[in-house]
Amino acid sequence: MKANSQMIVLSLLLAMPYSMLRAGIGDELAAMHVERMGGVDRIHNLQALRVEGRTYVQDNAVEMVMWAERPNHLRVESRQGEKRFVQAYDGAHAPWQSHSAVGEGAPKLMGESEAREFIRNADFDGPLIGYSTKGFTVDYAGEEQLEGRAAYKLLVMGQHDEILFLWLDKESYLLVKRLEYHISPEGRRVGIATLYKDYRPVGGVPQPYRVETQVNGRLLNMVLMDKIEANPRLPNGIFSLPAAPAESVKEITKAASAARDDATAPAR
Asked: Of 114, 126, 146, whose CA–CA distance to 214 is shortest?
């Protein structure tokens, strides 16, 4: 009887489309990722982060401070000498930025492509955690070697046809690489990869202390975190566009809605 049961199960598996099996493996790997990140409860207990670090572009080092708050609030400040650059998103209005050397530092809304990218990056948990509620599907796409370590490759697709690839370390199940493709202003297809390294626990949830960005395989910049604080006290209004005129609220809200709709649209 046992042998017959095993044959029935094997027959059912062989009859299933490979895409269904692949999707099931993807779901299991995503679940393992959540478990190794501390589990759903511990992840959700981490409500905000404050990060201090340095961004290296070639030989130049820029001081960086970042605030992030669940579910999608983000502010990044960069300083080099007397220059100060701020980018922020409050989850409701269009992302904005200000540069001390431009227009006397007056804040302004980001351009369309910048806004889409910033909104994507503002997702506090990233695409894998709670992926189904965000409209994503996760498919297993094989195994690869990344810097001498085995990793699971995942194909992640969204409801607006956006596509990205994620790699999970085979031992830790932590995210070690993310790859997306964009179209440059010149019409060229550009692969932008983000590598996550040196994980350490912050509020019981592993966080990368080194993040590298590569464009078509070449290092663009590297961010080294000096300090990451869990659930810090956040200054009031830190994510909001400062001193937004009342008459511009409708325009800002309209721009935010368009940016959110386009944030997950695929590059062509």
From this structure: 146
The pTM (predicted TM-score) of the whole model is: 0.81
In order of 112, 213, 241, the CA distances from 96 in angstroms are 11, 22, 6
Among 155, 231, 219, 172, CA closest to 33: 172
pLDDT, mean of residues 76-81: 93
Q: Environment class of residue 148 by beta-carbon count within 10 Å: exposed (0-12), middle (13-18) or buried (19+)?
A: exposed
What pLDDT score does 184 carry? Answer: 76
Instruction: List the one residue out of 165, 117, 120 whose CA is nearest residue 138.
Output: 165
How far apart CA 75 and CA 232 sit, in angstroms, is 14
- pLDDT for residue 183: 78
Task: Estimate to the nearest angstrom the gap between the alpha carbon of 71 and the chain centroid.
Answer: 12
Q: Given this model, what pLDDT does residue 188 score?
A: 83
List pLDDT tens digits, range 115-174: 988 999 999 999 999 999 999 999 999 999 999 999 999 999 987 778 999 999 999 999
